[in-house]
Amino acid sequence: MKTNWVELILKPGKEKSLQRFHPWVFSGAVSKTKGNPEEGDLVKVFAADGRFLATGHYQPDSIYVRILSFEDIEINREFWFNRLNNALQSRLTFIDCDNTNVFRLIHGEGDYLPGLIVDIYSDVAVIQAHSVGMYRAMPEIAEVLMTLPGLRISSVYNKSTSTVPSRWKDKASDGFLIGSSPMPVVVTENGLKFNVNPVLGQKTGFFIDQRENRALLATYAKGKRVANLFSYTGGFSVYAMAAGATEVFSVDASQPALELAGENAALNDFSKQHVALNMDIVRQTSELPGTFDIMVVDPPAFAKHTGHRTNAIKAYARLNAAVMEKMNPGGLMFTFSCSQAVSRDDFRSAIYSAALQAGKQVRILHMVTQGPDHPVNIFHPEGEYLKGLVVQVG
Predict the structure, then answer these.
(1) Gap between the Cα atoms of 30 and 317, Å rounded
(2) Range list for CATH 2.30.130.10 in the chain
(3) Best label site of 2, 40, 168, 207, fewest CB within 10 Å?
(4) Neighbour count for residue 373 (Cβ, 10 Å)
């Protein structure tokens, strides 16, 4: 990547967030720009008194700079190797690669690389750039991925057209950066097999962040009748069947996703227990067949911006109240929000409202979040996007 150093000088007092290691500089904090940065260029950030503060990627948005380093160092191949390898070695301390070969390697700010996502699917690495700086750096990042000790990948796929800023859509393209691989890819998670299609699937192809929560569900599922709502490709469904659930319904509005869920059930020899239902859960919850011992509620984000927060909280309450009506007494609901604009307290309040609306006694058994391969930078609490509760409905 071409280095085009530009200096940004902050307004007096605006250096405090960087001194607390927050990885963003907002446009309103900048007093002066020395040079003409292009989007994605590397810039150095200085305090009003001339002190060096950080280096990062420039972008002409409210988030003006995404910080890569708080040290005055070169952003070169050695930098990328060290950051990627440190993240990998962290994952290898809690992931048993003999039983799990699908995991998130880089989680943006949580791995000190804002704007970058890297997911591993067996021998395929999938990159998503959420900033132009990371998109421009992608060829070098892909080459470094191939050299990491302990990571055996044969191809790197770029899936960024849906995540780069909209003004770059016509400049961005998806496709293999290195090698190639037939789709779908068969991966293993905790010994269970899944077909994943990074090219056509949501996000990078699989909801990796729910691995620990799927395993938690399995501890309760034996002998139970389970409904997995917004099931996508059936991750929770397969875990429930593996644990001995008697009947599992995967319910989703997407027929292609349900077909893949059926394939995943068959891949693990669970077809007899599996039922796929194509329906709009938000509008048709009452039409679910019968009642259930366990229900999973994992909808897409209801609020992507803070302006939608209030309506999202109300929507979560309505949905969860309707789900509670379909539960057997003492049943468990695994319910989630992936809306960044909805806080953990907001979501808990929504479930409180749902219990009141449904007239149900509800107890919280577990408070859950994203897996450890989706780490949250302590100085960037915005990175905790997945909120979940396991509740027992009276």
Answers:
(1) 41
(2) 6-69
(3) 2
(4) 25
CATH class (in words) of the domain with range 77-186: alpha beta
Asked if omega into 12 is within 30° of 0 (cis), the reply is no
Q: Does the 6-69 domain belong in CATH 2.30.130.10? A: yes
Measured CA to CA, the distance from residue 162 to residue 128 in angstroms comes to: 9
Q: H-helix or E-strand containing 89?
A: helix 77-91
With 0.90 as the threshold, say if the pTM is over it.
yes
Distance of CA 279 to the CA centre of its chain: 24
**Average pLDDT score over the chain:** 95
Work out whether strand 247-252 and strand 292-297 pair parallel, antiparallel, or are unpaired: unpaired
Mean pLDDT, residues 159-172 taken together: 92
Q: Give the model's confidence band at 4: pLDDT under 50 very low, under 70 low, under 90 confident, else very high.
A: low
Question: pLDDT for 212-223, tens place per residue?
Answer: 999 999 999 999
If one looks up domain 207-393 in CATH, what number appears?
3.40.50.150
